[in-house]
Amino acid sequence: MTFSKDTKISTVNNGRRNLLVGSAAATAAAGLGIAPTALLAQESSAMPNAIKQTMNIGSMEVSTLLAGTRTAPDPQTIFGMNVSAEEFASVSAENFIPADKNQFFFTPTVVRAGDDVVLFDTGLNPNSITAPLQAAGIAPEDVTIVVITHMHGDHIGGLSGDDGMPTFPNARYVTGQMEYDAWAKTAPDNFNAKVKPLAEKMTFIGDGDSVVSGITSVAAHGHTPGHMTYMLESEGEQLLLIADTANHYVWSLAYPDWEVKFDMDKAAAAATRKKIFGMLSADKIPFVGYHMPFPAVGYVAPRGEGGFQYVPASYQMMLEG
């Protein structure tokens, strides 16, 4: 992402908005392609109503964690790059959202599965992930496995601090072999700082491999070369963590052929969206999307010819029996 020096990212740090300045901001910014200027988060009374939401999938306890949110202008510079301004505005109006600004959300997920505490992605920096983890009753030392779905900066930023010390000292790490190899070839600074030092503690997997019992990788390439989603299954219930398969619930999920700036292979990403959301729609499986509006949990319904509709979860996962 390329933003101006006035870009504001709101992260959560012990219940307060956190100032991202100096080297911490530069580290997060580098992985996103942001110019390394100070990124100031707003000190505001308009705090998020919640920074975690917990549900059960069979015997697994699943919490979505709000690691950050920000408002950005000119969304068509990112989404729907291959459609006209008129179509973009019309679709936005039909969905009761403005066409001139967007709200980004950054939502890792933590899963208690048996004796393991499995964290999927780490937000922009250590502070952004440790606060919502604390709200879920989890200390960084409690995390036993960190799964990296792909290696964009807003997913790897919380792996370590400026001093290089791992945020999760007792964890082992899991990521896709294809994803790691692709980034190792280009070796950007953020990869070298955040990921490469942990390589000896990493397990590299492919499509259909198991993280722990009940958590299985599902290839979803296109956004990045080895982008991976993860299916949770327990006691007959399922939930798919889609990571960045779609970066917006209208401008990406609902219109899978709309091009997204951050998709490295745009044709493959569109094909992946059709495959993944077609499966979720047909099988009525709920999902968590890293960039969906918090709490980032919902369903997919078919919409017209080749399109989809995002249906936010309501009380489905509160029901017992």
Write up this protein.
The protein is an alpha+beta fold. It has one domain (12-318): Metallo-beta-lactamase, Chain A (4-Layer Sandwich). It has eight helices and 18 strands. A hairpin with a 2-residue loop joins strand 14 and strand 15. The model is unreliable at 1-8 and 14-46 (pLDDT under 50).
Task: Chart the SSEs and their pairings.
Elements: E1 12-13, E2 16-17, H1 22-32, E3 52-57, E4 60-65, E5 68-73, H2 85-94, E6 101-106, E7 109-113, E8 116-120, H3 126-135, E9 145-148, H4 153-156, E10 172-176, H5 177-186, H6 189-194, E11 202-205, E12 210-212, E13 215-219, E14 228-234, E15 237-243, H7 249-254, H8 266-283, E16 287-289, E17 297-303, E18 307-312
Parallel strand pairs: 8-9, 9-10, 10-11, 15-16
Antiparallel strand pairs: 1-2, 3-4, 4-7, 5-6, 7-8, 12-13, 13-14, 14-15, 16-17, 17-18
Which structural traits does this protein have?
321 residues, alpha+beta, Metallo-beta-lactamase, Chain A, seven-stranded mixed beta sheet, 18 strands, 23% helix, 28% strand
Do you know the CATH topology? Metallo-beta-lactamase, Chain A
Q: Any idea what the radius of gyration is?
A: 18 Å
Please give the share of residues in helix.
10-25%
Strand arrangement within the widest β-sheet reads: 3-4-7-8-9-10-11
Task: Based on the coordinates given, report the CATH architecture.
Answer: 4-Layer Sandwich
State which percent range the strand residues make up: 25-35%
What is the CATH domain class? Alpha Beta
In whole angstroms, how far apart are the ends? 44 Å
Summarize model confidence as the mean pLDDT: 88
Q: What is the tally of beta strands? A: 18
Q: Write down the overall geometry.
A: globular
What's the tally of helices? 8
Characterize the biggest β-sheet. Answer: 7 strands, mixed
